[in-house]
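quick one before i forget lol
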Amino acid sequence: MANKYVLQGKVKSTGIAYLFWFILGAHYAYLGKWGIQVLFWITLGGLGIWMIIDLFLIPGKVEAYNAYIFEELDKIEKSEKEEDHKRHVETLKAISNKD
């Protein structure tokens, strides 16, 4: 299981994705999709058509990328809560056994 702080650092921003799209046409690289990024550059953004379409699709692409990260973060948080609960129960048992 990954470290939750590492995962939080991997969350992507729609605004930054648009910035990459506008400046370098590198929004796929920002999302870690280098194969599609190279194809995008080779075709010059589908001669502009693909680039315009991506203008509207970027929020969904970023959301899909982040969805996996948020699922993993939820799993980690649930696991941490279960571990905390177990520790509290064990502490209470230890305290009650001392009496």
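fyi Residues 4-98 form one domain.
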